[in-house]
Amino acid sequence: MADAKSGAGTDITSVLKEKRVFKPKAEFSGLAHIKNRAQYDRLYRKSIKDPEGFWGTLAEQELVWHKKWTKVLEWKYPFARWFVGGKINVSYNCVDRHLSSWRRNKAAIVWEGEPGDARVLTYQDLHREVCRFANVLKTLGVEKGDRVAIYMPMVPELPIAMLACARVGATHTVIFGGFSSEALKDRINDSQCKVVITADGGYRRGQTVPLKTNVDAALADAQSVQHVIVLRRTHEAIHFEPGRDHWWHEMMSASSNDCPPERLDSEHPLYILYTSGTTGKPKGVLHTTAGYLLGVTVTAKYVFDLKEEDTFWCTADIGWVTGHSYIVYGPLSNGATVVMYEGAPNYPEPDRFWHLIEKYRVTVFYTAPTAIRSFIRWGEQWPRRHDLSSLRLLGTVGEPINPEAWMWYHHVIGAGKCPIVDTWWQTETGMIMITPLPGVTPTKPGSCTLPFFGIDPLITNKEGRELPQNHGGLLALRRPWPAMFRTLYGDPERYRRQYWEEIPGVYFTGDGARCDKDGYYWMMGRVDDVINVSGHRLGTMEVESALVHHPSVAEAAVVGRPDEIKGQGIVAFVTLRGAVEPSADLREELRGHVTKEIGALARPDEIRFTDALPKTRSGKIMRRLLREVATSGGIVGDTTTLEDFSVLDRLRHQEEE
Ligand code: ATP
Ligand code: MG
Questions:
Q1: What is the tens place of the pLDDT at every residue in 36-87?
Q2: N or C: which end of the chain has fewer CB within 10 A?
Q3: Residue that is last in its domain, among 262, 279, 301
Q4: 608: closest CA among 568, 642, 559?
Q5: Which atom of ligand 1 is nearest to the CA of 526?
Q6: Where does ligand 1 bind, in terms of residues with CB under 6 Å?
Q7: For 589-619, how does the pLDDT look when each residue is reduced to its tens digit (9 = 90+)?
Q8: What 8-state DSSP symbol labels residue 466?
Q9: Ligand 1, closest atom to CA 285?
């Protein structure tokens, strides 16, 4: 345990005791792209000793260039340029290059809508649609460098629109279809979009979402937008503004199939994406072309061990970076088959995901801890109804996964045979950064394990001093990587200040973590959420994991509240499993349970039962709002990224009970 008197104000005390280890099965490793630790070690060493050589070789092997670069990396702290002088097109790499082989008739996107309608697009189909839509954009005056907003349901036209932007060199900004017109307006204005691509509506949990109506409201206050392209999806009545609004199908029918890809500079801006807003107001993260494409191509291949015959399903919404990197750009660049699903996991019943896995024989499945905790809450009977035997590999991303949720995923979904890759990364990093390689890395539930090639993490204090093994601290990264964001859109000073000057000389992730004796990383939660009890700084993850370990608990979030004696006391918000009723006895039992699991230090002062926790629209728990509820009972912080506003009211009521 870290010494409270060590004086380093940013150390985090670790209390989690997790000892289980799961080795990859020999059958899996034998067929994997990376087969053993020696091979990983050799590549990793090379990637750190000679990053330019390492990434340069991969860039030649994995991507098709219009013109080769002259320099792999130009690093003027904290601004990077990768593959300087190269010319390349992302849509060419994700689509056209597959047409010269048998892959032209391979399924690129296997799509299912929430109502049950389905479509399959081969690479050839995808190519035709992308080219036609790229011509539509050109017809409307979209030029290289223009920004285009995409606010659509999860339908194939969404990746088509993204790839068409990439083809002509327009920078897209995808805005999650669950966002309100207010959030849409802010993002359109921040990036000054010229065109908005949307749909009449989308399906979600049996209802329709009025996308076009939201666009109309947003555009009342967004002057940069000249055209709106509307896909017909739900067939509901919408307002149509003559001259400004155009139907997707009408524009497409008048469009040509022939659209040569623009030869774009390696550093051409590919997209702007706003972060999910867990810690505050979202930031416009800018990604560019070649380095990003290389990072997602290589991680998709090695982390998901993608093979020609795989059917890969990443359940994220394309409105988040996970969807950009691992539904669209990474898998398609590899020529993989991806599954894409429009709707909610519990529509019409809580087994929709398992139904889809069975129906499409999904082999690699990538989802979020928040989803896994919902599945646990809904009960094992739902996955048990389905044949999940096609699965060979599982992944998670988005939050730390509590060991108990990991074990459930391993047993109930993976039948004890599928490796789990717990992948740590961020919108800013663009690509997976710390992760097991499924054929190589023995996994420990709750640890995202080892750095990917070329990634050089360290655990440090605020002053940049590296902390010893097993000391919790700040997770930082020592060197640039190809898929890193290049700046915050329109605000390079904030980019510098917030990410590269907080800790001298390194990139600061904002997350707390520790590194164990085997070099495995354990994420401890966000640094902003750390709780200070009697001089010990506790990460949220470990206390929450102790609570989730109790058989009655489905989900938990802990926050600090000022306490005269201890500095801060712990308030835990707890959601119970299916049939369990809250009671005073259970409350005492849970407090005792935490004491027993990790010690009296972490014993919650108060436990509040709740039927839901406040989350962002990407499903992450917003502890900053819980902190406000626990401290003052009110909320004044930014709530625009909150998924369900009624949760706050219900939390406030709880308090009065
Ligand atoms: P904002 O930066 O606006 O608060 P956000 O950080 O929630 O939003 P994302 O970029 O989508 O937006 O999330 C990245 C964060 O998610 C990471 O910094 C980390 O806190 C968490 N995270 C992602 N994957 C993992 C993982 N495998 N284990 C632990 N934490 C993870
Ligand atoms: Mg973040």
A1: 999 999 999 999 999 999 999 999 999 999 999 999 999 999 999 999 999 9
A2: C
A3: 262
A4: 559
A5: 20
A6: 275-280, 282, 320-321, 397-400, 422-427, 448, 509-511, 523, 526, 618, 620
A7: 999 999 999 899 999 999 999 999 999 988 9
A8: B
A9: 10
